[in-house]
DNA sequence: AAGTTATTTCTAGTATTATCGAAATAAGAA
DNA sequence: TTCTTATTTCGATAATACTAGAAATAACTT
């Protein structure tokens, strides 16, 4: 992953409300969680919530799927895994290159 | 780790220049890297660099140690590990609770 | 069509962040 | 003590982000 993309995704997760949203989605599983459920669970005003979700969508960490009136938010596990992998590969001690 | 702290650290890493700084420090090893070396390696103006380093220090991801005129920046591996662990534990699919 | 529910877009005020030159500080060297 | 090196703090400007009420849109129900 390029550093620019990693930085963008980290920045979006670097906001308490958005991090809570993402965590809530992850707990909700692969089918996704309706926006309204996030709203009542976290107690965030609709317009504010929509703004934060849009940001998560913009960096590819969340995808939305509509079913009738309900919009489901689906966390993109693969993207988060890649981000975690980036941190581990690029920003943690690489023991294999280290001489004991 | 509390979500507030995690969010703060993610936010600080969520800036391309700061992420590059941190990555450079990690590559530099446990003894740390002088500010001046980061400056010439990344080509960032001194005042701007100082600002970014201060932010990393403020969230505990970097510690500074002075040796004469030279200030060494030391990446805090433990803190990054904790952050990565937070993401994996709280924001990734927990396979163990999943019925296979 | 009119009403209801679910969610977004608009708008605007406030706050935080990024940037970097210039001046200031810290510390060793002459 | 003066000079040089290393780095920070100050100050000012521009840009971006946060928040949330109100209005708009999307889609189902009656």
UniProtKB/TrEMBL annotation, chains A, B:
Alphabetized SMART domains for the sequence: HTH_ARSR (SM00418)
Domain HTH arsR-type, residue spans: 1-95
Keywords: DNA-binding, Transcription, Transcription regulation
Residue ranges of coiled coil: none
Keyword Cell membrane: no
Top-rank lineage group of the source organism: Bacteria
InterPro entries: ArsR-like_HTH, HTH_ArsR_DNA-bd_dom, Metal_resp_trans_reg, WH-like_DNA-bd_sf, WH_DNA-bd_sf
CDD domains linked to this entry: HTH_ARSR (cd00090)
UniProt-recorded Gene Ontology molecular function terms: DNA binding; DNA-binding transcription factor activity
Name of the molecule in the record: Winged helix-turn-helix transcriptional regulator
